[in-house]
Structures are given as C-alpha cells and as structure tokens.
Design goal:
By secondary structure, the chain is an alpha/beta fold. Helices cover 41% and strands 19% of the residues. Strands 3-2-1-4-5-6 form a six-stranded parallel β-sheet, with helices on both faces. Helix 3 (90-107) links the parallel strand 4 (71-74) and strand 5. The longest helix is centred in the C-terminal third of the chain and has 19 residues, at 209-227. The model has no long low-confidence stretch (mean pLDDT 95).
C-alpha cells in the first residue's frame, strides 16, 4: 500500500493526484487545501473515475489524515502570473511553507517530501531549515521538468525517441539554469556530431544551442502566457519522482537538494544529477563538467543565494 498526501489542490496539485490515480502509483491519496471545498470537489471528481483505472482511495482531508504517508507533495502557494518570475514569489510562498511545514511534519515525520511550489529551490532550502528532517528525504522537483523540456526539444530536432536523448539542465529551476552541452548525446553520440553520424537522407534543421536554451528557459512562461498555468508536464515529472521513490531500483534524475561542497558550492539547494530511490535522494553524481559549466553552476548558486539573503527564512 502506497499512501501519498498532496498539500495544495490547485491546477498542479489536482493534476498530480489525477496522474497518480491513473498510473496506479498510489493506493491512497489524501488531498489537503486551505480551501476545503476545492479539495473535496477535486478528490470527488478523481474518485468517481477510479473504476476505470487502478484501485485507489482518493479523498480530501486534514493534516492529521497524512499519518502513515510514504510521500508528501507540497504544491501549495501562490501561482506564478504572466510576466512574473518564479523568484518574485519567494517571500509569499516561504511564509506559506513555514506554516505548512509546522503542521505536516507533526503527522508525517517519516515521509519523503517532494517540494513543487515555486520558487522551488528557495522553498526546498527553507523546508530543509524548517523541518529538521533528514535532507535525503527532502526533494525539490528542480530541473527535472527543464530536463524533460530539453530532451523533448532535442527529440523534435532529430525525430528520435525522447528516451534516446541524454542531456540535462542543471542549477536553478529558473532563469539562471544552464545546459552542460559537453555531456549531451543521443545514444552515446555527442549532440554536436549526431547529424553527421546518422546515415540517412533526412535533412535535419541547423543545430542552434542558443535557440534550444531559450526554448527550455522560457517554456514555462510561454505556456502561462497562453493558457494561464502549467500543470500537465510538471505533474508527469512529479509522478515520475514518486514512482522512483516507491520503486526498488535507484534512478538518476535532476532534482533540487541541499549542497555541501559539491563543485565548491555550499548551503543552497539547486539541481544536480541525483540518485533517487526508496531511501530518498541519497547520493549525487558529480558529472565531469568543464570549467565554463562549473562557472555557470556557481552563477546559478549565487543567484539563488542572493534571493535567500533578501528574504526572511
């Protein structure tokens, strides 16, 4: 039996619950929101469709109902508006997280926590400070979504299965993120040389790193501008994290965790390649970044530290 509690039942939280139910990832889903009627409505809507999917108990509850949860997903907070950066949300959502943290950890002290609300790196850092829980059980969704956007874009360039694309976005889930191109490849062929390595008559578009970086960095804002919010892709990525946390085999992914000297960076949460499994995000993989990429990582860390230094945690 896998029990998952979701705090915050807006577009992201409710879509995560729906995706968990459809995928059969959880057998019990608790939905908690300051707007209790919204939580009841969302849980009822999902529950009434479960006869067509995997058996799952979905219901609205209070913090006390989180007892025994394997995973707690925090998606509460104020959503990003068109034209607003993730970091603009920092103080408001840190204050909300402070209240949530005090309540939820009383009832689910043994759960693994997945922070989804933005700015996710700042909130993951704040939760580490507030909760006192082991850091391997505190995971920010980080750049797992950015990495998915990158792989999706590269697969479009070369008309290849997304799973054959191996590339990462590291650093902040935001404007200071970066792509370590030196490591990007398709089926072990370096990305720069892939079009020449393929024996085909297909004409691939000119490979433009700047365009791809811009696409990845601005994707969230573009979706928000057009439909008001992003929730499908982020929900799919969070459910992937949950499946790996509940599974028996470790998986690598770019998620946000606390750093303790990696690449000379300390006391900040950002995304590196982590090993995630039923013991949480228990190990980091130190990728062989070149000097330019290490500089970009430090720049991202400094950007986040500047925000942390200007808010009340």
């Amino acid at each position: 039996m896998n029990k998952i509690t979701i705090i915050g039942t807006g577009s992201v939280g409710s879509t995560i619950a729906y995706t968990l139910a459809i995928n059969g990832t959880a057998s019990e889903i608790v939905m908690i929101d300051i707007n209790g009627e919204r939580a009841i409505g969302e849980s009822l809507d999902i529950r009434q469709g479960t006869p067509f999917s995997n058996p799952c108990s979905v219901y609205a509850g209070s913090y006390a109902d989180a007892v025994g949860s394997n995973i707690v997903i925090i998606s509460s907070g104020v959503a990003r508006k068109p034209g607003q950066s993730r970091l603009d949300l920092a103080q408001t959502n840190v204050d909300i997280l402070r209240t949530v943290s005090a309540e939820i950890t009383r009832y689910a002290p043994d759960a693994t926590y997945v922070i989804v609300s933005n700015p996710v790196d700042v909130l993951t850092y704040a939760f580490c400070k507030y909760s006192g829980l082991p850091e391997e059980r505190i995971i920010g969704s980080g750049t797992i979504l950015d990495t998915s956007r990158l792989r999706s874009r590269l697969s479009e360039y070369y008309s290849i299965n997304q799973r054959n694309v191996h590339a990462y976005v590291l650093g902040e889930h935001g404007d200071s993120s970066f792509i370590p191109w030196s490591l990007a490849n398709i089926s072990n062929v370096p990305i720069d040389g892939y079009s020449k390595a393929v024996q085909t008559s297909v004409q691939y578009p000119a490979f433009n790193k700047e365009e791809i970086e811009e696409y990845v960095r601005k994707s969230g804002a573009r979706v928000i501008e057009r439909k008001g919010a992003t929730f499908y892709a982020v929900s799919m990525s969070v459910v992937h994290i949950c499946k790996c946390l509940l599974g028996g085999i470790d998986t690598t992914m770019t998620v946000s965790t606390m750093l303790h000297g990696e690449y000379g960076i300390d006391d900040v949460c950002l995304s590196l390649l982590n090993i995630v499994g039923n013991k949480g995000a228990h190990s980091k993989i130190l990728l062989p970044l070149n000097d330019e990429e290490i500089t970009a990582l430090h720049r991202s860390a400094d950007s986040l530290k500047a925000v942390i230094g200007n808010i009340n945690i």
